[in-house]
Amino acid sequence: MAFTRPRGTRDFLPEEMARRRYVEGVMREVFESFGYGEVQTPTFESLELITAKSGEDIRRHLYHFKDKAERDLALRPELTAPVMRLYINELKRSPKPVKVYYIGNCFRYEEPQSGRYREFWQAGVELIGPPHEEAEAEVVALAMATLERLGLEGFEVHIGHIGVLRRILEDGGVREEDQNPVMNAIDKGEEAALKGLLEKLQVPEESRSVLLTILELEGPSREVLGKARALLAGRTGVLEELERFERVLCALGFFGVEGYRVDLGIARGLDYYTGTVFEIYAPRLGAQKQICGGGSYSLTETLGGAPVPTCGFAFGFDRVLLALEAEGRKLGGDKGPKALVVPAGKDLLGEAIRVAASLRKSLPCEVDLMKRKLVKALGYADSRGIPLVVIIGEEELAKGCVLVRDMKTGAQRDVKVEDLGSIKVHE
Ligand code: AMP
User: Fold this and answer.
1) pLDDT tens profile 82-121
2) What band does 427 get if pLDDT is binned at 50, 70 and 90?
3) Which residues of 379-416 are buried (b: 16+ CB within 10 A; e: fewer)?
4) Distance 332 CA to ligand 1 centre (A)
5) Ligand 1 atom nearest residue 118's Cα
6) What is the pLDDT of residue 346?
7) Atom 5, ligand 1: which residue's CA is nearest?
8) CA distance 269 to 411
9) Hey, is 219 helix, strand or coil?
10) 229 Cα to the center of ligand 1, angstroms
């Protein structure tokens, strides 16, 4: 019986891993250039941690299980809650701001399709401490800087403010826990469900209509803010939230960020978001076009810590990769061996291994371990695109040399074993 992968999971072959590692490397570099340090948390956590303020959608798609001691555990569906737990356990007394990033696998029991998997990777940051709008702006700027460094061209940034939406609901008499299903329906674009919920929660007609109108506001910043201000005239609490949002957008200017769209219809599917929320789309990816989501949130108190301002984002790592590939971006150089060391004679494999060990100090190389004929070994080097073949023969060895063959031109020359360190590959 042959085994297959569990549904919704993937195997990654060396070429793809090289591309993934390259993208990871660029992300790390950009995150670190903004002062973020990498953290790693366990792949599974307590079910309670994962479900605290996580949102209906996350709970529905959870992989959860009991361990042998009957503990309820869950595979992490995202990393913000685990990282907040880590902050409370390990970093809460550290000087502020605390700036951390992560790259890790996540698990959701969703219906697999292109760009949607049951095991996928997120790369994200959390910024903990600063209560100012500039912090929220920094995470948006960082997400955009990362995509720019990766060379992604076709991406759209939509920024909204969940505080505005929550405050409209609050003024309409809706408590926080009842606001969450409303946010979920908005996030999913389920209009009928949303209207039904507002009806059920007996939200007054006026608040209802303000909410439904504001959700439709999307476009360039000045235009949308003008319309929102007019719509919210006289609603002091909501206007205060809108002003907070305007300060975030103003701070984005300091980071040189432009070209985004203001979209007051963004709600995000997780219950912990509070203020600025943003999503980045790569339209080429079709249905699963969202490559990043983030904003400001409040989670530490729910997890038993002290309140502290927090914001961050998570890239859907796999989707960023798909978006880059869809644009034909070259992701990193060729990582394969640059030379194949071939013993040209039965008893020369040991010598070939010795030569390869010294060559490897300057050039990634592989020894032909198959003990096959030279022509076959050359064919193998050709099929793998290995540019040099180092032939170990009796005659050459007697002169203290090896034969180096350039696979592109077919030219061969003797090289002293001690000079092998200086051979170059002409690509
Ligand atoms: P979320 O934690 O739901 O805000 O998701 C953050 C990002 O992770 C999204 O913008 C997606 O790019 C990505 N993502 C979420 N679920 C999946 C999935 N099942 N497969 C691949 N990527 C996903």
Assistant:
1) 999 999 999 999 999 999 999 999 999 999 999 999 999 9
2) low
3) ebbeeeebbbbbbbbeebbeeebbbbbebeeeeeeebe
4) 24
5) 19
6) 80
7) 293
8) 62
9) strand
10) 32
Distance CA 153, CA 280 (A): 12
CA–CA dist 236, 413 (Å, integer): 83
End-to-end Cα spacing for the chain: 44
Tens digits of residue pLDDT in 264-297:
999 987 788 899 999 999 999 999 999 999 999 9
Question: Residue 76: which pLDDT band, with cuts at 50, 70 and 90?
Answer: very high
**Is the Cβ–Cβ distance between 117 and 9 less than 8 Å?**
yes
Element (H, E) at 246: helix 236-254
Mean pLDDT of the chain: 95
What's the CA-to-centroid distance between 323 and ligand 1, angstroms?
Answer: 14
Percentage, residues of the chain above pLDDT 70: 100
Q: How far apart are CA 160 and CA 113, in angstroms?
A: 28
Pocket test for ligand 1, best of 23, 79, 106 (most atoms within 8 A of CB): 106
Ligand 1 centre distance from Cα of residue 116 (Å): 8
315 in Cβ contact with 124 (< 8 Å): yes
**Token pair of 240 as six digits:** 């205060």
List all residues whose CB is within 6 A of at least one atom of ligand 1. 78, 108, 110, 116-117, 120, 122, 269, 290-293, 314, 316, 318-319
- Decide: 299 and 281 in contact? Cβ < 8 Å: no
List Cβ neighbours of 177 (8 Å cut-off, separation of 6 or more): none
Residue 57 has pLDDT above 90, yes or no: no
Cβ atoms of residues 16 and 127 within 8 Å? no
Q: Mind giving me the DSSP string for 30-42?
A: HHHHTT-EE----
Q: Ligand 1, from 319, 322, 324: best to mutate by most atoms within 8 Å of Cβ?
A: 319
